């Protein structure tokens, strides 16, 4: 693989160079073939063996230049002045045959100067959760970091119990977070702040010509910030439409390029509930499902604040930020109307969506099953199944209004069903499915993860032999709690 480690050539204040600390007896747990293809990694037995040694901290890719990045961030609303890669390293940047650059980041690679009181390690459970979720989101069409593989080991790591020290090799177009900018703003290193912004614009926004041409000026930075606002708003609209809760939307977990980033106690909604809190440690519900759009806006405000020293006229920042609510709402409504099979937006459509969500919330209806079943209307079976699920007096009138609305759209049923099935997944990464795969993997059985991946990588298709992965959670699966301790 061809490495070009641009980040490692930035000034020393951006990172600390160091190598991964080895794990005992590393073994490969799972690899994503589609992620491997992104960097031209050929999964031959020999290459897999080398990859396992690299992820276990025993060898390095030739050409890599590992480093821990420094950043800070707002965590649960309060500013933490010094964070950074405390348990991961940027191994380097691979340029594939198409000329695309991919960061390789090894999570769980041992202590760094930014580990604070942590051990620098990750456990198998959390690596599998990130692996499954990032690959699942990608195949749902939601921007996200990717996961190449998970490696486990005999090194014990102490959490509530003793677990297996493991690593995840993450791929992303950038590992720069909102918190990188905050770090240089709050340490008053405006020169580094400018270097970081210019670096990001050059490396990750190179396709936006206006931004490139105006680089280094107020207009260039305005275009940059406005683009981050736009990408973040669209990303969160996609989470909301898919029923995905991130769980820890601290600014150090927000990617500057608008990817879903840093998977912790995330969750996909089963029974629809606006106030779903997936993170067991989030007692106030700061990061509840319904809060995500507003938190995205708030986080962008923190990024905007950090960019102030780059501008002569800082009012431009506020103007760009003020676009957020409209971009978010327009995108969200468009996605929801797609889910309903409505192609041309009309007056009253917003109400149709709002009313439906209220019904789903009131009846705690399974979000994914509802929309997938809706694709089969006007069949009587589908109508019956929906009415049974949304056990609410107002559902019948809603359905009548919906059918009337569809009738004005002029698309035939079959075309609409096909379109709807391309946006309403049959399979999502339900918490209990991840849990089942983890429990088996912890016993050395990786087959469950492989079959789960088969549906998650083609979530809009039918998988007749794997239908059970589309089921609602059993009782035990509804009560699972996920905390930050990973
Ligand atoms: P997270 O909650 O995973 O987004 O992490 C927040 C901060 O804590 C980051 O700076 C991480 O690098 C650091 N961190 C999390 N877990 C550990 C750990 N086990 N050892 C060292 N640092 C950690
Ligand atoms: Mg983080």
Describe this structure in words.
By secondary structure, the protein is of the alpha+beta class. Among the domains are: 7-172, no CATH class; 340-420, no CATH class. It has 18 helices and 14 strands. Strands 1, 3, 7, 8, 9, 10, 11 and 12 form an eight-stranded antiparallel beta sheet that branches. The chain has a two-stranded antiparallel sheet with strand order 2-4. α3 (124-139) packs across α16, α4 packs antiparallel against α5 and α7 (218-242) runs parallel beside α9. The mean pLDDT is 97. The structure holds adenosine monophosphate and magnesium ion. Adenosine monophosphate is lined by residues 83-87, 114-115, 118-121, 248, 253, 262, 264, 484.
Helix content: 40-55%
Give the C-alpha Rg. 23 Å
* Coarse morphology: globular
Quote the average pLDDT.
97
The end-to-end span amounts to 31 Å
Distinct ligand kinds: adenosine monophosphate, magnesium ion
Strand content bin: 5-15%
Largest sheet properties = 8 strands, antiparallel
The DSSP helix count reads 18
Q: How would you describe this structure in keywords?
A:
about 475 residues, alpha+beta, 8-stranded antiparallel sheet, two-stranded antiparallel sheet, 18 helices, about 45% helix, globular, binds adenosine monophosphate, binds magnesium ion
């Amino acid at each position: 693989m061809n490495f070009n480690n641009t980040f490692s050539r930035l000034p020393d204040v951006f990172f600390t160079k160091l190598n991964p600390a080895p794990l005992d007896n590393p073994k490969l747990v799972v690899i994503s073939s589609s992620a491997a293809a992104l960097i031209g990694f050929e999964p031959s037995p020999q290459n897999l063996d080398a990859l396992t040694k690299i992820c276990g901290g025993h060898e390095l890719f030739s050409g890599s230049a590992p480093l821990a990045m420094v950043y800070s961030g707002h965590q649960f609303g309060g500013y933490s002045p010094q964070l950074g890669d405390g348990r991961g390293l940027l191994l380097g940047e691979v340029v594939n045959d198409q000329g695309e650059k991919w960061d390789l980041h090894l999570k769980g690679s041992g202590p760094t100067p930014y580990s604070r009181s942590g051990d620098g390690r990750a456990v198998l459970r959390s690596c599998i959760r990130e692996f499954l979720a990032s690959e699942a989101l990608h195949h749902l069409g939601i921007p996200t970091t990717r996961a190449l593989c998970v490696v486990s080991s005999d090194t014990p790591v102490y959490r509530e119990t003793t677990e297996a020290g493991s690593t995840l090799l993450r791929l992303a177009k950038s590992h720069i977070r909102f918190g990188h900018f905050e770090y240089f703003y709050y340490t008053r290193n405006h020169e580094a702040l400018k270097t970081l912004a210019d670096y990001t614009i050059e490396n990750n926004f190179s396709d936006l010509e206006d931004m490139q041409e105006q680089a280094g000026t107020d207009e260039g930075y305005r275009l940059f910030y406005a683009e981050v606002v736009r990408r973040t708003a669209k990303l969160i609209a996609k989470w909301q439409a898919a029923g995905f809760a991130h769980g820890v939307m601290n600014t150090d977990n927000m990617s500057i390029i608008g990817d879903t980033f840093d998977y912790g106690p995330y969750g996909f909604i089963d029974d629809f509930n606006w106030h779903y809190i997936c993170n067991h440690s989030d007692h106030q519900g700061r990061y509840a499902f319904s809060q995500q759009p507003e938190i995205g806006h708030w986080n962008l405000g923190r990024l905007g604040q950090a960019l102030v020293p780059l501008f002569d006229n800082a009012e431009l920042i506020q103007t760009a930020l003020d676009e957020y609510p409209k971009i978010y709402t327009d995108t969200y409504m468009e996605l929801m109307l797609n889910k309903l099979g409505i192609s041309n937006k009309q007056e009253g459509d917003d109400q149709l969506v709002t009313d439906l969500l209220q019904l789903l919330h009131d009846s705690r209806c399974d979000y994914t099953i509802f929309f997938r079943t809706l694709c089969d209307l006007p069949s009587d079976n589908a109508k019956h199944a929906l009415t049974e699920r949304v056990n609410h007096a107002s559902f019948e009138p809603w359905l009548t209004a919906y059918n009337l609305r569809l009738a004005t759209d002029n698309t035939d049923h079959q075309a609409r069903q096909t379109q709807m099935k391309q946006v309403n997944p049959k399979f999502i990464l339900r918490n209990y499915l991840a849990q089942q795969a983890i429990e088996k993997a912890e016993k050395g059985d990786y087959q469950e993860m492989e079959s789960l991946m088969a549906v998650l990588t083609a979530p809009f298709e039918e998988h007749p032999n794997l239908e059970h992965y589309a089921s609602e959670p059993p009782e035990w699966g509804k009560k699972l709690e996920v905390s930050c301790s990973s």
